[in-house]
Amino acid sequence: MPVVREFRLPDLGEGLTGAEVVRWMVEVGEVIAVDQPVVEVETAKAVVEVPCPYGGVVTARYGAEGEEIAVGAPLVTVAVASAGGGAADTAASSPASSASSAEVERPLVGYGVVESRGARRRRVGAAAAPASAPAPVAVAAPVAPAEPVEPVAPAAPVVVPVISPLVRRLAREQGVDLTALTGSGPDGLIMRADVERAVAAKVAAPAPAAPVAVAQDGVVPLRGLRKAVAEKLSRSHREIPAATCWVDADATELMSLRRQLNSTPGPKVSVLALLARICTVALARFPELNSSVTEDGSGIVRHSAVHLGFAAQGERGLVVPVVRDAQAHSTEQLGEELGRLTESARSGSLTPAELTGGTFTLNNYGVFGVDGSTPILNHPEAAMLGVGRIVAKPWVHDGELAVREVTQLSFTFDHRVCDGGTAGGFLRFVADCVEQPGMLLRQL
């Protein structure tokens, strides 16, 4: 007899306690396979798809789009076959079926299967699937008792074709009714520009001829990424006694080296990649800065590997992706990894693993057209190098006034892990490498 299994929101790692429903990927009554993604959720780290470890018929969904669901709370219930090597047996043997799923079984009575979108494609391809693939629940339902209790499925929401979950979220936050929009994309797909035009039209619309009400201040709740950033920065400011030093550096030779490297065949080298390479060399010279203070403040953890974080602007706001083992990468490899992570940040597809575990941060705030900054450290890291814009300025070079490409470097550090001499030595070494990049050859 088929039974209903309850799949709960699993632990998504990194101490996350909940997630916001962005988009449901299945409907009630739909036949799903083992490990098929059923919902897209947004955590404080990233937007992720959550697969269900059970194959069968979706009998219920919990949580509306935009609603926060706690870890361990129900997500969906699925009717699975309990005998004959059906979906229940397959799901039970799946690695994804773990204690975190917190399953609940109960008999299913009088529930018919609806073959919905995607089901026919899976049924046709079932012959080519491996033996372990789950079989859909049979259409024939078991004989019901005299007074069967029919499960009541919630009404399926109107599905509007939208280019991405981020666009759907933008519409929700701005109060735009997607069902009233005509998409400008292929087959009427609603693009971000369509939502932005609707928002602009609302702003530009003339006020109704009615008495003017007294405007009230609005409160924007801290949620998702913004909430995580606020908590992390507040903790950093509260716990870390940070100090900042800075220096102007002549980057003319560094820019000349970059142009020379990019004039030859091969991947292009970015300024950020060159600065990342300088950071790894400098941290090998000053290893105490690649560290963090223990939770109780009683010791300093020295990290053998440099997991280099860098600030990147995405649709969800400012994020800090991490290049793992940056010290083991060549300059070209650093450039490729920085580029890949930057694109993922822009598209909002960074995973939680790509956003955690950094030991040192490189902050290129020069892309915003500013010269300097005194940033808050990325807790629990002990140091951050900031780089301002590279701009032509008057500069004394070889005893004469000349126009050179100059940048301001700033270095913010946890004063518990080192004194000013160490921090100043690190920053001076970085500046020397920027001014005379040939120095790096002595370190490689």
From TrEMBL:
Alphabetized Pfam families for the sequence: 2-oxoacid_dh (PF00198), Biotin_lipoyl (PF00364), E3_binding (PF02817)
Keywords: Acyltransferase, Lipoyl, Transferase
Residue span, Peripheral subunit-binding (PSBD) domain: 162-199
Domain Lipoyl-binding intervals: 4-79
EC top class, as a word: transferase
Top-rank lineage group of the source organism: Bacteria
Matches recorded under CDD domains: lipoyl_domain
Cellular component terms per the entry's GO annotation: cytoplasm
Cofactor(s) named in the record: (R)-lipoate
GO MF annotation terms: acetyltransferase activity; lipoic acid binding
SUPFAM superfamilies xrefs: CoA-dependent acyltransferases, Peripheral subunit-binding domain of 2-oxo acid dehydrogenase complex, Single hybrid motif
PROSITE patterns assigned: BIOTINYL_LIPOYL, LIPOYL, PSBD
InterPro entries according to UniProt: 2-oxoA_DH_lipoyl-BS, 2-oxoacid_DH_actylTfrase, 2-oxoacid_DH_E2_comp, Biotin_lipoyl, CAT-like_dom_sf, E3-bd_dom_sf, PSBD, Single_hybrid_motif
EC number: 2.3.1.-
Signal peptide range: none
Sequence similarity: Belongs to the 2-oxoacid dehydrogenase family.
Full protein name: Dihydrolipoamide acetyltransferase component of pyruvate dehydrogenase complex
Annotated source species: Kitasatospora aureofaciens
